[in-house]
Design brief:
single chain; alpha/beta; Helicase, Ruva Protein, domain 3; Dna Topoisomerase Vi A Subunit, Chain: A, domain 2; 4-stranded parallel beta sheet; two-stranded antiparallel ribbon; 7 helices; 42% helix
Length: 198
C-alpha cells in the first residue's frame, strides 16, 4: 500500500530523527493524524520555537535560551570547578544527581577519527582558554566511558596539566542492580580502583 504524499513526507521526516525507525515513525505519524488540529499546531509551534529561541551558551556551549545558560548565570554555582562533558544531554544527566555544584563545558562531541571528529571540531580550544584565564582550579572530565570518550579525556588531560590545574576523571564501575558475573573486565577493574571507605 502506498501512503498519501503528505503522510509519506511526514514518515520520511520522522525517520530522520535519531532512534526512530519505520515502525516508530508510523506510530508517531498515526498519533499526529488522530490528534486534533490544535494539538498538531502546538507540536509544530514547539519545534519552531525551540529552533528560534535556543542557542549555544557562549561560555560553556550548553543549550541556552537567554544570553547565558541557566548554570552559567547561576551565582550559586562554583566557577572554579568545571565539568567537561560531550553533549548538552550529559549536563542534564549530571544535574539530576544533585551532586555537582560547579559549572560545565560542553565539547559538542568526542574525538572519533572514524566519524571525522578531531580536537579541532570540538570546543577544546575554548576550554583551554577558559582554564588559562586562571579562575579554574579543577577540571572534572566526564566524557563517556568508551574508546572515544577515553581518548578525548586523555587528550584534554594532556593539554590542561601544564596549566597547573587539577584534572580529575569521573569513576566508572558497576551500575546499581548489576551482577558481577556480567560485568566486563575493564568495568570491574575500574570499580575496584575507585573503591572507597565505608
Amino acid at each position: 500500500m502506498r501512503y498519501a504524499p503528505a503522510i509519506a513526507r511526514l514518515l520520511e521526516e520522522l525517520e530522520r530523527l535519531p532512534g526512530i525507525g519505520p515502525k516508530s515513525a508510523q506510530r508517531l505519524a498515526y498519533h499526529i493524524l488522530r490528534a486534533d488540529e490544535q494539538e498538531a499546531a502546538r507540536l509544530a509551534e514547539a519545534v519552531l520555537e525551540v529552533k528560534r529561541s535556543i542557542h549555544f551558551c557562549p561560555r560553556c556551549f550548553n543549550f541556552a535560551q537567554e544570553e547565558l545558560c541557566e548554570v552559567c548565570s547561576d551565582a550559586k554555582r562554583d566557577p572554579s570547578i568545571v565539568c567537561v562533558v560531550e553533549e548538552p544531554r550529559d549536563v542534564i544527566a549530571i544535574e539530576r544527581t544533585g551532586e555537582f555544584h560547579g559549572v560545565y563545558h560542553v565539547l559538542q562531541g568526542a574525538i572519533s577519527p572514524i566519524d571525522g571528529m578531531g580536537p579541532e571540531q570540538l570546543r577544546v580550544r575554548e576550554l583551554v582558554d577558559r582554564v588559562g584565564a586562571g579562575d579554574v582550579v579543577e577540571v572534572v572530565i566526564a566524557t563517556n566511558p568508551n574508546v572515544e570518550g577515553e581518548t578525548t579525556a586523555l587528550y584534554i588531560a594532556r593539554l590542561l596539566k601544564p596549566l597547573g590545574v587539577r584534572v580529575t576523571r569521573i569513576a566508572s564501575g558497576l551500575p546499581v542492580g548489576g551482577d558481577l558475573e556480567y560485568a566486563d573486565e575493564v568495568t570491574l577493574g575500574r570499580a575496584l580502583e575507585a573503591r572507597r571507605e565505608m
